[in-house]
Amino acid sequence: MNWYRWLFEHFKLPEGARVLEVGCGCGRLWRENLGRISHWQVTLMDASPGMIEEARAHLKDEPRTFTYSVMDAQEIPFGDASFDAVVAIHMLYHVPDQHRALSELRRVLKPGGRFYASTNGREHLREVGDLAAHFAEGETLERIRSAHTLNPFRLEDGLEMLSKYFSEVVLHKLESSLVVTEAEPLHAFILSGEATADLRERPSAAEVRRLDDFKAYLRERIAAEGAVYITQASGLFEAHGSGFEKATIR
């Protein structure tokens, strides 16, 4: 399953639509779906100049489709009713003031326009914390666990939040498992976050031994079971209209 193509399948936009993506990152959503864009005009926006330049480099062969802007989702310098759709892929939980951002995103949508926002649920990557207990303890372990569970915009509470701004909110859920058959990539992934920065950069001799033992444990488990399964619980909110009327899960 290609996540970005799955997202794109849920977009309901007219030919020639004006689209704003906030927090576009390197533009991968569009790179994965270049052949499916129907004469849209897409503005890619990110607070990071580096991300905007990376997106521009990846999409340089499509100058008529894409424009780029470095800006904050909490202060969008576009007029009211400027876009047929606004897209926010796994980014709202990074915004300091989510309600301010949602108010701005709602403002720039045309009447009848659609807002698409993806995020994770509380069960997403839940096995990572259990695996981390093989090498981490105390505050480090709690930071690893909370990195995958503390999210102010999750599948479980996004409906309530979005219903303050849109009358129709639908959640499209994608639940699957990540099947890991090699120890090294899983070991690297679990150690890749901010919670384990000290372990990566300044490990003590004892921590080095624990990390080596953890990698050996992963190898032994994969050899015995064939794979390690990691829960993926993600989804896409599709919203339109104004004010609260109803919300639906699909």
UniProtKB/TrEMBL annotation:
It comes from the Bacteria. This is Methyltransferase type 11 domain-containing protein. GO terms for molecular function: S-adenosylmethionine-dependent methyltransferase activity. PANTHER family: METHYLTRANSFERASE, METHYLTRANSFERASE DOMAIN-CONTAINING PROTEIN. It comes from uncultured Truepera sp. Gene3D superfamilies: Vaccinia Virus protein VP39. Residues 20-116 form the Methyltransferase type domain. The lineage of its organism: Bacteria, Thermotogati, Deinococcota, Deinococci, Trueperales. Pfam families: Methyltransf_11.
